[in-house]
Amino acid sequence: MNRDVEEEEARHIAKRNGFSYVMPVLRSKREFHFEHKLVQRARTKRSVDLSRKLKTEPAVSAAIQQPGYLRSKRGYKQIRGIPLPDLTEHSNMAKTDAAPNDPLYPKQWYINNTGQAGGVPKLDLNVEPAWALGFTGKGVTTAIMDDGIDYMHPDLADNFNAEASYDFSSNDPFPYPRYTDDWFNSHGTRCAGEIAAMKNNEICGVGVAYESKVAGLRMLDQPYMTDLIEANSMGHMPQNIDIYSASWGPTDDGRTVDGPRNATMRAIVKGVNEGRNGSGSIYVWASGDGGPNDDCNCDGYAASMWTISINSATNDGQTASYDESCSSTLASTFSNGKTGDQDAGVATTDLYGKCTTRHSGTSAAAPEAAGVFALALEANNKLTWRDVQHLTVLTSKRNHLDDHKHRHNWTINGAGLEFNHLFGYGVLDAGDMVDMARNWITVPERWHCSADVITGNYPFSTGNPLTLTIDTTACQGQENQVNYLEHVQAFITLRATRRGDVTIHLVSPMNTTSMLLGKRVNDGNSKSGFTKWPFMTTHAWAENPKGRWRLIISLDGNEPQSGTLLEWNLLLHGTRTSPYVQQTANLLRHSKLALVKRQHETDRKFSEF
Question: Which domains occur in the chain, in start order?
Answer without folding.
Answer: 7-55 (no CATH), 73-438 (3.40.50.200), 446-575 (2.60.120.260), 579-609 (no CATH)
